[in-house]
Amino acid sequence: MATTVRTEHPHIVSNPKVAGGKATIAGTRVSVVFIVRQLRAGDRPEDILASYPHLVPAAVYDSISYYYDHQDETDRVIEGSTPEVMAERYGFTVGEDGRLVFKNR
Length: 105
Known about the structure:
Helix content: 40-55%
Low-confidence stretches: none
Number of strands: 5
Number of helices: 5
Structural class: alpha+beta
CATH superfamily: Winged helix-like DNA-binding domain superfamily/Winged helix DNA-binding domain
Oligomer: single chain
Distance between the termini: 34 Å
Order of helices and strands: EEEHHHHHEE
Strand order of the largest sheet: 1-2-3
Mean pLDDT: 92
Shape: globular
Number of domains: 1
């Protein structure tokens, strides 16, 4: 039975059965990595809240705080999940139509 682990941040938890064990906003499947990627793409916390109205401001800002407290770890997760890294790891390419094409195994 997987157990949810609370972190030092009141809105952030981890559970091996949710988002691959990545830190997430409690009660959701929204990961800290997702929030960081949105910010890097140019979204502001207000934009994230408008797009995901089930999130509360404190949880989004706590995600940002968690990131700064765990920046190296979070950056490694982000770097390890780029399309290029995933393509190499799982042996696929992206076709002209945008579909994933897996190599014969």
